[in-house]
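hey so i finally got around to running the thing on that chain from the lab meeting. sorry it took forever, my laptop kept dying and i had to restart like 3 times. anyway pasting the input first so we r on the same page abt which one it is
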Amino acid sequence: MSNHHAKSPIGILMTTLLACLACAVTAAATPAETKIQATDAAFGDRFGCSLAVSDGFALIGAQANDDDGGDSGCAYVLDLGGYVEVRKLRAADAAGGDYFGCAVGLCGQRAVIGALRDDHSATDTGAAYLFGADDGIQHRKLTAADAAANDQFGCAVAVSDSFVLVGARYCDSSVTIYDSGAAYLFDPDTGVELFKLIAADYGRQDQFGYAVAVSDSFAVIGAPMWDAVGRTDCGAVYVFDPRTGVEIWRLTASDQGAYDRFGNAVALCGRTLLVGAYWGGGEDDAGAAYVFDVATGVELRKLTAADADYEDWFGSSVALSGELAVIGASQQGYSTPRAGLSYVFNVATGAELLRLAATGGNQNDDFGVAVGIDGGCVVVGADKDSDLALNAGAVYVYDPIADPTGSGSASAPPAPFEVKANPNPFNPATEIEIALTSDCLVSARVYDAGGKLRRVLLSGAPRPAGVMRLRWDGRDDAGRALPSGVYCCEVRTGTERSACKMVLTK
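ok and heres what got predicted. didnt touch it at all, straight out
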């Protein structure tokens, strides 16, 4: 239970500034910084303790919000197009101490939220909840079929088009092999538990399930307390096939060392896997991140900050979008010691592009405790920001993030791509043609004339260069026929956006 003070609503504060950034390797354009705090920010909420970004929206956890009892928790949906708070999400059976919002995942309009201390069958068994980010409706509550006390199921969550993956870091394999950890795969459409995943070499206190990531092809689970021979807590990451539940790889850092905690954070984008090791990086424990080809298990490169310093916790959070990565160092300092920093890298080249520091940040804000990236838009959590109230929390949005190494010229714009619909006007369906200039991840969404999202046609799907086609039948995500009118199909790839107007006639 929390001893938070009585709460009163406080209006949203969004201050747009130019970020005070220093680039360590390659000069990049300075993005605009926007600070966002919850409309009802209050003492100890820790807004920004977790976050996920997808298709122009952000899902922000506030695990210690007290609306339904001390530390019951909540989450917020933000529209990054206008930096607007869209809605607030709370569990239908919320209770004090649940920590709902401790972990969040977002894929299109499908949101998953962890509550690691939910007591549905015993103390701290944990749960996860599926919501519609577009309508705020809770669709189902997910729990483990073999739930046990203190498992903390929901400590980490991830979602793709076809799967939900939930970590339970303190799940016991036996009485003597305790806290070995587990992860559970679910069908998001039915809520059916598909597989319980455990490491083939599970060991005591490995905390397998501490961090998770999932796509329709791979399920990735971090075990940061895994022990190698002679190296305590060096950490490991496991890759599974989510369609079969079969373990494919166990990945470790090529330079693994004791207490590196490799696997404390993971991010997945196509075949690229990014792994944090917040105490790695050498004798100074500054932290490191590692890039792998998840399809082959090959380590491609190690990333470290150019200004690495003792116990920065670089790698405490990681996120990927195309070739851009953002890496949190929540204990690093710039103008203010231990305020936290975040870094943007090109994972294909290993180049450090930007160093992000919160304008006006304060010591112990934990800027970088959570990070997310969607194309060229970066979101950074600072859950102990205290500008409105002690540890009320905040997030910072940086947009646009440009990669000058991608084109060889900082001033060269990204290569354009064309989007068109045919027939147009149409009834009952049209074909949307997208001419891609390179291999990339593609998202396509349909909005009505009022700007309301009506249909997600594609969400972060890998596609090769060339012409691709999508069919839209004039219906929304629920299958309901939409009225005549003007609609817009917005298509996003790595750092590019394009759109076309469509007219539905009846």
